[in-house]
Amino acid sequence: MNTLKRLYKQRQLQLMVLPGIIFMIIFNYIPIYGIITAFKRYTIVDSMSSAPWVGLENFKLIVQDSFFWESVRNTLAISLMKLFLGFAIPIFLAIMIFEVKNMRFKKIVQTISYIPHFFSWIVLGGMLISWLSTDGFFNQTLMALGLMHKGNNHLLDPSQYWWIAVLSDLWKEVGWGTILYLAGMSRIDPTLYEAARMDGATKMTQITRITIPLLAPIISLNLILNVSGLLGSNLDQTLVLMNSQNQSHAEVINSFVYRMGLTQGDFSYATAVGLGISIVSVILLVITDRITRKLNDGHSIIV
């Protein structure tokens, strides 16, 4: 009864929230019903109810599919490389920007580092395809420096694709990734740094003993989000940069699901792959949350 009274008193606020709730129900909860497709042999001429049940047959096919495991290998390799580089570098860059005293120079650095984020992968992918071509900017620069005698198309070399994917993603997102850390550092009490300087603490000591410990909750939250998304490699980037020559190292789980579902029309198989990956992602989320509890005195960041 008390709950109903509180809802009535907050009726104007509740009405403001209502459109968002309706949106989530329509686009986030109702589609969950489609998960049953993973346990059926569904085709475009079937309805959800008329498609025959096949139990775990689709999941058995996944285990036996060498192309699926190839995409898992590529996804883990690229995502782990992105995690190690893309997680740490924004923290270092944010600290460096925060320590800059010249406000004009700080704004210039922030603007330059943010700009790539606002370009789509269609634009950035076209630039990379041009730069990494045989006569592109990258080869021309290396030949001018004497580091290469003959140009080659780097995107056609499968062995180079993982590094191209990781470094290009880092170039696009590293500046944007500093925003949360800079916001956190702006809330740190300046008197803590003043007291540390009076005690003779060096700049590195201030960073390791004040800045990073106070950023621990934000760092933990980003770690949880990054690890839980470990199996969700960037689909846009892959579709732009992948070609028939580098596909063995470029195909990730998301592009594999896209190809099997929308391109080849095997909706049940694609749904089964997506469901399996979602379950693993939830497990990774829970494990990472348990680990980060220890970094935050037993307190969870997400619960």
UniProtKB/TrEMBL annotation:
Membrane topology: Multi-pass membrane protein
Transmembrane segments: 15-39, 76-100, 112-133, 161-183, 212-232, 267-287
Any Pfam family the entry gives: BPD_transp_1
Main localization category: membrane
UniProt keywords, alphabetically: Cell membrane, Membrane, Transmembrane, Transmembrane helix, Transport
Domain ABC transmembrane type-1, residue spans: 72-288
Cellular compartment(s): Cell membrane
Family note: Belongs to the binding-protein-dependent transport system permease family.
Name the record gives this protein: ABC transporter permease
